[in-house]
Write a structure and sequence with these properties.
Shape: elongated
Radius of gyration: 23 Å
Structural class: alpha+beta
Strand content: 35-45%
Number of helices: 3
Order of helices and strands: HHEEEEEEHEEEEEE
CATH architecture: Beta Barrel
CATH topology: Lipocalin
Number of strands: 12
Strand order of the largest sheet: 1-4-6-7-8-9-10-12
CATH superfamily: Lipid/polyisoprenoid-binding, YceI-like
Length: about 250
């Protein structure tokens, strides 16, 4: 009996040391503040061309009240109404389980002229990973302390390099499908990613939609700690950005 108690005690100590080493007991760093967008630096050549065309045009015929305005307008993705989430599958206690992590701390800017989508410019999208949460606090600590190392790397960033597949223009109430190619940085690793985007013009001052992509954990060195009851965590991670962008 005494021997069993001693063995149980030793196992408990080892388990405590194990979960501590995996960051399961350490509280992650808190967010440094409410997320803010990095101001978009508009391409001067594009803005000058738009301005020149506007001066050269004849007096415009008054547009219907529900038409989107003309000229480049900066829209800001706001945490209110927006959400970033990841999804991946794992075996948890022998059963296949889908892990979902979410945060509303996402921000970015886009310059859009609904009447001339060839002039679209997209700024850096930032996500504060210190605010990411799943349905399990132990998993949250492991993700933040060991996998994403959010104490050192607070933000994930996506820096667009190209916008492809847009039509010439879009009207209020219409939905468009296109892609945004760019550099996705997680921790200290950057790799190219392509987001498929579905966006709807809600009004002249707002558009909303979803951007999605799939990345590989291995490409970013995101290793899963070996913990009891968790196995076969898939390498493919689905990323989604549900966004609402309003005119600044």
């Amino acid at each position: 009996m005494i021997r069993r108690v001693i063995v149980t005690g030793i196992m408990a100590v080892f388990m405590l040391l194990f979960v501590s080493a995996c960051g399961l007991l350490q509280e992650p760093e808190e967010a440094s503040g409410t997320i803010e967008a990095i101001p978009l630096e508009l391409d001067s050549a594009t803005t000058e061309a738009v301005a020149t065309e506007a001066v050269a045009e004849e007096p415009a015929v008054e547009e219907p009240a529900d038409a989107a305005g003309s000229g480049l307008v900066v829209f800001t993705i706001s945490p209110e109404g927006s959400e970033v989430r990841f999804e991946l599958d794992e075996d948890l206690r022998g059963l296949r389980n889908t892990v979902i992590g979410t945060t509303d701390q996402v921000a970015g800017e886009l310059a859009v002229d609904f009447n001339d989508l060839s002039t679209v410019q997209a700024g850096v999208i930032r996500v504060n990973m210190r605010t990411l949460a799943t349905d399990n606090n132990f998993r949250n600590r492991a993700i933040q302390n060991n996998i994403l190392e959010t104490g050192a790397y607070e933000f994930i960033t996506f820096t667009p390099t190209a916008v492809n597949g847009l039509p010439d223009s879009v009207s209020e109430g219409e939905t468009v499908n296109f892609t945004i190619v760019g550099d996705l940085t997680i921790r200290d690793t950057t790799a190219e990613a392509t987001f498929d985007v579905v966006a709807t013009v809600d009004s002249a001052t707002q558009f909303s939609g979803t951007a999605s992509t799939v990345v590989l954990r291995g490409d970013y060195g995101l290793n899963i700690p070996s913990v009891p009851n968790v196995a076969n965590v898939e390498d493919e991670v689905e990323l989604y950005i549900d966004f609402v962008a309003t005119a600044s």
